[in-house]
Amino acid sequence: MNEERKSTPDETGELVPATISELGRLLAANAKGDRRPVLPIGGRTSLGFGFPADPASVEVTTSRLDRVVDYPARDMTVTVEAGCRVALIQESLKLEGQRLPVDVPLAHRATIGGAIASDAGGPRRFGYGTLRDYVIGIGCVTVDGRRFKAGGRVVKNVAGYDLCKLMVGSGGSLAVVTEVTLKLKPLPTSSAMGWACFDSGDTVGDLLGDLATSRARPVAIELLGPKAGRQLAAESRQELPAGPLLLGVAVEGNPVEVEWQAGVLDRELRAGGAADVTWVRDGDTAKLWSSLTDYQLGGESPVTIRACLKPSRTVDFVVAAIDAGVAVQAHAGNGVVYGHLPDDTIDAQTAAEVIEPLRDLAVEGGGQLVVERCELGWHNALSMWGSARADWSLMTAVKRQFDPEGLLSPGRGIEAALQQLALGGVDQ
Fold first, then answer.
1. Which of 11, 259, 260, 354 yields a CA-CA distance of 20 to 30 A from 139?
2. Mean pLDDT over residues 319-339, rounded?
3. Does the pTM of the predicted model rise above 0.85?
């Protein structure tokens, strides 16, 4: 593809720019003309997050901005347009023995621009970090059509690096991501996952502290409740232990180091109270990684919550959530917990009765809880972001600098949370 590509509205009426230049012209024309709200669209895997979009929004999709701009494999960097599907990027990198070591849910649909805007991640965040650690250059278009870039195409070039980080997790509310340069890692030749069940949260809590200082270097430490454990086994078609708490650890590298680390972790799991440890190796781990990553989205759950708290308080939160009937998955080494309320949660009031005690527990644990997704019409009855925090004013100021009239993704982010509180929302 090249700069001669022509845009066409798709069958849904979305604007589908064929080039970055055309995207800029479309946004500039809107800013000078109708001034309609603009909703950037990638692979549609994160549109359910937060508050619903303004129904008057014009959707601008990046699906045709799908070029690999530059791939100097020796430098272990790649520059791609924002509409490239994550799975296709990974397949291209695989040919050179490289990868982006960040788990992106529904990677076959998700675009790299959408993944950056939503700060997508998964189990490997414990060993490799998040997208903020891999974005070294970024190109964007502002709401009025101006193009800007930050960072560069080499790892040593850190000019504008903070601006790169700012765009990660911005939710399409500051600018439309159009191009990104990522640093890469070598593709491991071997992997293993160990799974063990525990009856006591106290036992798991003690063990997690030991795993954090283990001679082995796990790339993921996952803690699942019984509902999540059963679904993971079914989705991955693997025989996994069944019990009140399912703990998983994963290692990657060459075959020798993987076997050594698996041996160390096996001994530590058994010494920590696991009655049985099941190991899954190499090719059989692929489906487990995929199922673990996609599970956090929630599927058909009426409400999905996400808590971020101190890793030392994760087990207490997980146990409380399980007791409340929530299906739980925790990236236990990082203190990030996803919870899916049961299908029989019939209304927002019922959901709130489950969520608010868990939110109090998260705050007590030095963290927070947000409602990531909920049934349409429940948003105003639930406290989506909780009580106002000190950083909200800073986020609002940044939003005003980039988008003073609030045309980009209006009502989906912090401004909607503030409006909910100002109107006498459920959590003041």
1. 11
2. 96
3. yes
